[in-house]
Amino acid sequence: MAKLAVIDIGTNSIHMVLADIEPDGSYKIVDRFKDMTRLGDGTFRQKCLSDETMSKGLEVLCNLTTLARNKGYSKIIMTATSAVREAKNGGAFIKAVADATRVRVQVVTGQEEARLIYLGIRHSMELTDIPALMVDVGGGSVEIIAGTRDRLVGALSLKLGAIRLKDQFFTKAPPTKSKLRECARTLEHELRESLERLKLDELDRIIASSGMAANLAEIVYLHRTGRPIPQLNLSTISLKEIRMVEERLARNTVPKRLEIPGLDPRRVDTLLPAVMLLRILLELTGQKDITISDKAIREGLIYDFIQKNKEKIQIEQEVPNVRLRNVISLARRCQYSKAHSHHVAGLATSLFDQTRTLHQLGEQEREWLSYAAILHDVGYVINPRQHHKHGYYLITNSDLAGFTSDEIEIIANLTRYHRRAMPGTRHAGYQSLSLSDQKKVRVLSALLRIADGLDRSHFSIIRDLEVHVGKAITIRLNVSGDPELEVWTAQNRADLFEKIFKRKVKFVTNADT
């Protein structure tokens, strides 16, 4: 099970979700945290994050990353949206965050933000073949997304976020009628133009996500039923109810707004422009109600992570050993032949075990041999010709976590010498090894060359083998078919073994007796 922490640095709030991801791609939200940091306050006027908001934001992010790590969530994804994206000192802020938390902040574009929101919504409710119009009202931007159950049809990011509109039109409460009309004209113009650009012939419904839409739904449901809303996701609110909330917000002072049941006090100055936007969008599309989604960018980031890391998540469950897991991950990325590579690894370690009296190597060297056998053909992904050399390059330039640099060099050298040329000081990679490690590479390469030869056809014709160590080495093969090609190849590959141990190698099969 993978443990993922997702932190979203929004214009209005900083959110963190902790998710446990199962090998089958499902996930469970274990915990959620939110701090209404309001990074966007004043940012869009001044084009700069204030020292105060940066300091507060940095403190919140340090606390959240520490909390995540203490709970065992070492994989942390951190994204920032419009406030950081548009601020002149946004770069300085994300550098400070990275220095303090050791997490790289990904500043997403408006289009990427829309795509992630679509992913979050699509997996939270059943969409149809007819496009739904999804709207996410943030503090700095509004994402307008058209999508079906199968695909993202179109997406736009508009600079109509609630904090931005509040700073532009609603510096006083209640606002003047002229400011209300001016804001409404701006919204109508921008939204009408956006709908024309999306060119939707028909519309299934409108879906709203974000904290703004959620708080509007809470207010409406309390007014409608007198009780708190039991579930945000898939709840609906009508155009009539939206107009009612808008009218109450527009005519009242801040103290009077705070008397509205269900209103989040932290949204007392930003909810009005968000409600106006949703009302105008409904009127322009002719829709009578809005469906609420409680999933958005954070859940989209989780699904995006699962999609990009599905194989890795599965292998972590299948292979607990981190070293073996990383070897297999590299092999899979290089599209290796699984059956052949693992069969060669089995033959190689069997040879190793049955010739210990000759080489006198230990478990560490056995492990290196097994890993090199799994990786010996990865160079095919570049080119079958000289794939042993390509394999060396791939291994030395891959991030094999859990291995020292010396171990990586040894495994790469074993791959380099599983065919063709024998180890020699004319090769820089081999020459860089200590004399002791050079000796180990020669011995292990000799075993790997024979093992690979014994599966020349890639059909596992040689099931297993038995080694008799005497003045000569007799390798008895248990076969399941015609072994002539395997025996011929292995005999030709036994040259290094014979040179090291100064004994002839003879192959016999159960068909010979």
From TrEMBL:
<feature type="domain" description="Ppx/GppA phosphatase C-terminal">
    <location>
        <begin position="322"/>
        <end position="461"/>
    </location>
</feature>
<feature type="domain" description="Ppx/GppA phosphatase N-terminal">
    <location>
        <begin position="24"/>
        <end position="307"/>
    </location>
</feature>
<dbReference type="InterPro" id="IPR043129">
    <property type="entry name" value="ATPase_NBD"/>
</dbReference>
<dbReference type="InterPro" id="IPR048950">
    <property type="entry name" value="Ppx_GppA_C"/>
</dbReference>
<protein>
    <submittedName>
        <fullName>Ppx/GppA phosphatase family protein</fullName>
    </submittedName>
</protein>
<dbReference type="InterPro" id="IPR050273">
    <property type="entry name" value="GppA/Ppx_hydrolase"/>
</dbReference>
<dbReference type="InterPro" id="IPR003695">
    <property type="entry name" value="Ppx_GppA_N"/>
</dbReference>
<dbReference type="Pfam" id="PF21447">
    <property type="entry name" value="Ppx-GppA_III"/>
</dbReference>
<dbReference type="InterPro" id="IPR003607">
    <property type="entry name" value="HD/PDEase_dom"/>
</dbReference>
<keyword id="KW-0378">Hydrolase</keyword>
<dbReference type="InterPro" id="IPR030673">
    <property type="entry name" value="PyroPPase_GppA_Ppx"/>
</dbReference>
<dbReference type="Pfam" id="PF02541">
    <property type="entry name" value="Ppx-GppA"/>
</dbReference>
